[in-house]
Amino acid sequence: MRRFFLFLLAALLCVQAGAQQKAGRHFAIFVDKATAEACRSELEAYRAAVTAEGLPAEIYAAEWTTPEQVRDRIRQLYREKGLEGAVFIGDIPVAMIQGAQHFTSAFKMDQQQFPKFEASVPSDRFYDDFGLKFRFVERDSTRHDLFYYWLTGDSAQRIHCDIYTGRIRATLPGEEGFAQIRAYLQKAVAAHQEANPLNRVVSYTGEGSFSNSLSAWKDESITLREQMPAAFQDADGAKFYMFYMYPDIKDVLARELARPDVDLMFFHEHGTPDRQWLTNRAPGETEDELYANGRLAARQLLRRNVRYGSDPMATRDKYIRQYGIDSTWFDGWDDPAVVAQDSIDDIKTGIVLEDVRKYNPNPRVVIFDACYNGDFREEDFIAAEYILGSGRTVACLGNSVNVLQDKSSSDLLGMLDAGYRIGEWAQLTNILESHVIGDPTYRFTASSSVAVPDLQNSDPAYWLSVLHNETLPTDLQSLALYKLFDLKYEGLSDLLRDTYFRSPSFMQRLQCLHLLPFYNDGNYAEVLKAALEDPYEFIRRKAVYYMGKVGRNDFVPYIVRLYMDDWLSERIAFNIWQSLSHLDTDLADELFDDAIDKADLYDRESFRKTVKANVNSARNMYVSSLRTMSDPDYKRYKKSFTQSLRNNPYPALVPDALRKLADTSEDTQYRILLAEALGWYVRAWNRADIIAGCEKILADEPGMDPALADELTKTINRLKEYMR
Questions:
Q1: Do residues 59 and 31 lie in contact, with contact meaning Cβ atoms separated by under 8 Å?
Q2: How far apart are CA 112 and CA 114, in angstroms?
Q3: Which residues contact 134 (CB under 8 A, 6 or more apart)?
Q4: What residues have CB less than 8 Å from 504, skipping those under 6 apart?
Q5: 0.85 surpassed by pTM
């Protein structure tokens, strides 16, 4: 009876919400004046297509000269018209963000050492997240569409997008570029007018993703089946490829891209703005093939060194000594004919811009779980070519800088299967570098007749009813957890813990693991311990990784047991040794000895030797870090070490770091770096000590350097996000 009541309540709320939505929603099409004049009829057709779906849209054409001009208009529309989302078409200014690397998944380029163009993140969070505050730095001296900003300490320190956005930009100049946009908009309008459920999915995992671990790869078919079950009804519905499928994987992917029926395609790979790195050359089965591959690698290595200014003969001789080879391995490295052939061989290992133009991809939506494929500061980039071709692709999700391998790229993806717009999904899952390239209003036809929840509803009781509505797909129930989190629902920590332990869904348990670290109680630690036995490899992998970041030594027995059970999972094993460097390695040594003595192992002592070497390496990582922090003889390493704390925030170093930070005799720039590094201790068991220490330093030095005060404020506010 209770379930039936909750179902009726949820259905009623959904109907009421749908009626409310129609009254207060708006979509803005921002376009530069030249593009507006050249593409007038196509823009109007696109506006009409979006409006016909119940989302009133308007075109805002102007000479958009600064990001502030666009942002101010966006916020005005949000206040006055209930703006839901926006698309930027043509030459709309690009905000280049600094001081916000904690909002990225992996990007940590030195912002003092490298040019601003390289060390900044092109990000439309400047436009779509109203809680973020920035200090204007400068306009680029040569690229006048680029504007540099610094995230201030008093800004919000968690991304929470108020609207969704997308970008559509030509890659050719003048009339050719206008023709690209006209053709794209015609394609987008046609896509809005068709019925197209999400029932054809292709996923590719390239070489180097997830350490080439098959145990990391195998679970994707389970998670995607949870999120888009209609794609798993026949042989063509869901296809999974991996780089191991030599030798013609590029040709196979080209055929998949040409299929007119593919709805969603994933690329888990390495990337650059102009290339998708699919694989290396096939390893070869004969000695001749192996030798040829080795010589190609040697030639490429020498050419790379020479490009960076190395002497060719000295470099060649160095590698001869290092690898025990002779000079014939490098023959032809500078021969134009050999260089040309090597280039042809190399191009077989990836998809480049010219390939995309030739393929004209057809998947309606493409997700690039890769570095730089969505780098819209460049004149041309992979994601843009996907949407601008004559194929059916209308939207991509791409990253503007490098991105972490060990992240989930499919959180809440079941929203697309349920008929939400791609922008609505991205709005909830964005990081600083992720962007919709193309039409953010595109949506698939809902695969179910179940009424979907109203994203605009702000009543916790409504979202509790959604969470407990078992007629809904689990990703929509998980969506309720995110909405309750945003609404600061008081009992959410316990609810997340209970949901983790009762849920049969891989992805729902993962969402609980994403949200629990924001709560300063024992629930996160309890779930982390249980998560080491989760059937989903990614949960086990991330749980052991975060145990090191928390830094509680009561985790050590659980980690030892995990390794003894799962040492063949490469990514898990890697994270185990990384995490142990943050914990009590003497305890780990003792527990491993006991576990190895009791285990049924083929070569016990060889196994023990490997384990001890890894434990010693973990111990040495911490000892080296402590020495660099406290020993004056190592002061020349202070800058690089302090920056490395962002990836390796050792909780045990917090007292020493706070003492250094409070020492006014230390160099101010060093103190700024240290204050920034302490902002990465978001999961540390002693993060409250960091907040208190930083607040005391601020109070004790009223006239301190403004940059240091700003960084301390940023770290305090950032850590407080994780102290609910």
A1: yes
A2: 6
A3: 95, 97, 126, 149, 150, 151, 152, 155
A4: none
A5: yes
Q: 31 — phi, psi (to 5°)?
A: -145, 145
According to CATH, what is the number of the domain 24-178? 3.40.50.10390
| Sheet (strand 57-62) strand order | 57-62, 26-32, 83-89, 164-168, 434-438, 395-399, 365-369, 264-268, 201-205, 238-242
Extents of the domains making up the chain: 1-23+456-505, 24-178, 287-347, 532-625, 631-720
Question: What SS3 class is residue 244?
Answer: coil
Q: How many residues does the chain have?
A: 724
Backbone CA torsion sign across 670, 676, 678, 681: negative
pLDDT at residue 8 greater than cutoff 70: no
Instruction: Report residue 167 as tokens.
Output: 């970008």
Q: Is the dihedral of CA 69, 75, 76, 81 positive or negative?
A: positive
| Residue in 467, 460, 405, 403 with CA at minimum distance from that of residue 430 | 403
The type of residue at 229 is: P
The whole-angstrom separation of Cα 154 and Cα 408 is 29
pLDDT tens sequence across 344-362: 888 889 999 999 999 999 9
Contact 298, 330 (CB under 8 A): yes
Residue 198 contacts residue 261 (beta carbons within 8 Å): no
Tell me the angle at which helices 40-52 and 174-192 cross, rounded to the nearest 10 degrees: 20
Closest to 144 (Cα-Cα) out of 171, 117, 124, 118:
117
Instruction: Identify which of 455, 426, 370 has the alpha carbon closest to the alpha carbon of residue 165.
Output: 426
Handedness of CA 414, 415, 419, 422 (dihedral sign): negative
User: How far is 361 from 115, CA to CA, in rounded Å?
Assistant: 35
Amino acid at 565: D
Q: How far apart are CA 350 and CA 146, in angstroms?
A: 29
CA 297 remoteness from chain centre = 31
* Phi and psi at residue 631, to the nearest 5°: -95, 120
**Which pLDDT belongs to residue 35?**
98
Contact 682, 719 (CB under 8 A): yes
Question: What digits encode the pLDDT tens for the residues 643-701?
Answer: 889 989 999 999 999 999 999 999 999 999 999 999 999 999 999 999 999 999 999 99
Q: Which residues of 60-95 are buried (b: 16+ CB within 10 A; e: fewer)?
A: ebeebeebeebbebbeebbeeeebbbbbbbbbbbbb
Q: CA 46 to CA 181: how far, in whole Å?
A: 11
Comparing 65-74, 240-249, 359-368, which segment has the lowest mean pLDDT? Answer: 240-249
Structure tokens at 254: 């080209």
Cis before 247 (ω within 30): yes
Helix (H, G, I), strand (E, B) or coil at 527: helix
d(CA 407, CA 106): 10
The bridge status of strand 264-268 relative to strand 238-242 is unpaired
Instruction: Give the three-state DSSP class for 77.
Output: helix
Summary mean pLDDT of the chain: 93
Ramachandran category for residue 195: left, alpha or beta (phi over 0 → left; psi -120 to 50 → alpha)? beta
Integer Cα distance of 677 and 584 in angstroms: 22
> Which tokens is 552 given?
């509680």
The CA distance from 658 to 680, in Å, is 14
* Helix 537-550 vs helix 570-580: crossing angle, to nearest 10: 10
416: enclosing H helix or E strand:
helix 414-417
Residues 341-346, mean pLDDT to the nearest whole number: 83
Give the tens place of pLDDT for each residue, 374-405: 999 999 999 999 999 999 999 999 999 999 98
∠ CA 235-239-240, nearest 5°, is 145
